[in-house]
Amino acid sequence: MNGDEAGPGLSCLVTGATGYIGGRLVPELLAAGHRVRCLARSPGKLRDHPWSGEVEVVAGDVIRAESVAAAMRGIDVAYYLVHALGTGDDFETTDRTAARIFGERARAAGVRRIVYLGGLTPAGVPERQLSPHLRSRSEVGRILLDSGVPTTVLRAAVIIGSGSASFEMLRYLTERLPAMITPRWVRTRIQPIAVRDVLRLLVGSARLPDDVNRAFDIGGPDVLTYREMMVRYAAIAGLPPRVIVPVPVLTPGLSSLWVGLVTPVPGSIARPLTESLRHEVVCGEHDIDRYVPPPPGHPIGFDEAVRLALQRVRDAQVTTRWSSASPPGAPSDPLPTDPDWAGGSLYTDRRELTVDASRAALWRVVEGIGGDNGWYSFPLAWAARGWLDRLVGGVGLRRGRRDAERLRAGDSLDFWRVEEIEPGHLLRLRAEMRLPGLAWLEMYVERDEQGRTRYRQRALFHPHGLLGHAYWWSVSPFHAVVFGGMARNIAKAAARAPAAEDGATTR
Q1: I want to staple 292 with a disulfide (CB 3.0 to 4.6 A). Which of 36, 204, 341, 443 is the partner?
Q2: 143 and 103 in contact (C-beta within 8 Å)?
Q3: CA 236 to CA 180: how far, in whole Å?
Q4: Of 456, 449, 451, whose CA–CA distance to 502 is shortest?
Q5: E-state strands within 184-253
Q6: d(CA 158, CA 185)
């Protein structure tokens, strides 16, 4: 049976829709004529996606059986696209529990198929020798296959696409290091796959026959070492040839620190990525082609996948990124808005300025903050704070922006995340750097009683314990420079910007 064969649309549940693959799969399912329901811990993160009005969004968590059961009602195909990548020591237990709940609730609801995207495991390597994350992904696949619901497990190695963690790691390592001493895993053979082919196979898997319950290896047409991938990336990107010298002394831990220092990918994510490259990961079969035959031009080769990804980056058309999902341990609670909030101390730094510019001009500066545009004050202090965050295992300052001009709820923005955005009026960011507490930064564009443009800025910090209080008081002497300078420089940048009509403040 052809996985793309036309038929009545199916009801599909997508978990992980706020993540890299899930956020791209939803519009593909819609384009194929399916109905989509998204299960998300923070539904607000999906609000500004262009497809949000075409899907049903329900709040819930895969480790909460009652919310999974509710989300499964009336579903034909359930996509399991969540992983505990980079979480704490107990992540395997969390993965195991979530997979069992998902399978049990799918069976109870009469779901016709589960589709899971896992990791390609090396042939002939005992499971105990695999990296913990690859081992856990393999176990999740087995649990779902044993759930009593026909399941498709797609096992991929390195996914090449704009914004993927694997692509960003490859891109930054190659672009930033003309000469490098590398760990020996750069000589490991890998079979990468283009993200477009991953999405094609995920969509096609929805219509597999009911008697298909198995794992499939998926990969592109090229088998390369990581060194060859870097060399070919450099050629495609128009960079001078790279000097790459593998050495045997870089352990996975040291490798993840090295990757974390050079690329935007933090060590918590870099480590499982590099650990998975210790063994050869090459497809042992291509049986999925019998069910989802590749159309002309597919599967996409490595060189073309890199060209497509680079073009997306250059055209600022990266729809989702590896950082679309919040990092492990990041705060998820929204800013408490009750003026009588009883959650404890809430320190505040406020700045207000009248701005000699239109509200539209000021909003463009506010919405364009971060990434290559910087933070409009004391760049060295921001850079130092980013490096400090990386050293303690945080995301650092180099995640940048998904889009150079526009933001949407849920976007990562350096070491912040967009918690709320009201176009033309409010941008609220929640800190995801390592802190002894919770922090937010708010920027408002308003009009005062005289009709003048007003900029209002508020930094808030909710300390955790004595260390949190000590942290606030230790950094508060620098607020005049950092936050005061930010407010003044944002106002100056808006005043220098070309005039614009206030009607342009909404999108």
Answers
A1: 204
A2: yes
A3: 19
A4: 451
A5: 189-190, 193-194, 214-218, 224-225, 243-247
A6: 14
Q: Is the pLDDT of residue 206 over 50?
A: yes
What residue has token string 């005061």? 484
Tokens of 277: 């490259």
The answer to whether 97 and 63 are in contact (CB under 8 A) is yes
What per-residue confidence (pLDDT) applies to 266?
67
Where b means 16+ CB within 10 Å and e means fewer, 30-49 reads bebebbbbbbbbbbbbbebb
Longest dimension (CA), the chain: 75
The alpha carbon of residue 248 and the mean position of all alpha carbons in its chain are separated, in whole angstroms, by: 31
Q: What is the reported pLDDT for 253? A: 64
Contact of 280 with 412, CB cutoff 8 Å: no
Q: CA 482, CA 499: separation in Å to the nearest integer?
A: 27
Query: Per-residue pLDDT tens for 66-90?
Result: 999 999 999 999 999 988 655 556 7
Positive or negative, the CA dihedral 170, 176, 177, 183 is negative
Place of tokens 């050293």: 391
Closest to 16 in 3D by CA, of 53, 71, 54:
71
Read off the pLDDT band of 1 (50, 70, 90): very low
Half-sphere exposure of 4 (CA within 13 A, CB side): 13
Q: What's the CA gap between 461 and 447, in Å, rounded?
A: 27
Report for 106-110, 135-139, 501-505: range of highest mean pLDDT: 106-110
**Local structure of 302: helix, strand or coil:** helix
- Contact assessment for residue 118 and residue 154, using Cβ atoms and an 8 Å cutoff: yes
pTM more than 0.90 = no
Q: What are phi and psi of 222, to 5 degrees?
A: -110, 140
DSSP state of 368: T
Pairing of strands 416-422, 412-413: antiparallel
